[in-house]
């Protein structure tokens, strides 16, 4: 261990104090000016989000895999079943094709039996899942 001479120690101490004296952190105020319409739009968005219930219907997953295959599967499904809505959801690492918004389990299972004839890995998704 190296021992500093008294003059070097004093010089080092004074240098540290002088540097620390000039440090100022976050001493300024920030004022944000935003358009009043922003709060109005945010309020409208909050109303819409509370009125949307996304997990109260039964859905059917017909595919899980790569992006291009999911797009092709959804396209084929929409061509074959034009009356049933479908979407692609990314859930790491797979893209999943989810179809239908069925209010009752009976309705979902009826469509599941029909869809199962065409697609191999098909299963029912319960509300809230």
UniProtKB/TrEMBL annotation:
A GO molecular function held by the record: peptidoglycan binding
Domain SPOR: 52-129
Record bears the keyword Signal: yes
N-terminal signal peptide: 1-25
Pfam families attached to this UniProt entry: SPOR
Keyword line: Signal
UniProt entry tagged with the keyword Lipoprotein: no
Xref: InterPro entries: SPOR-like_dom (IPR007730), SPOR-like_sf (IPR036680)
Protein name (record): SPOR domain-containing protein
Organism for this UniProt entry: Flavobacterium resistens
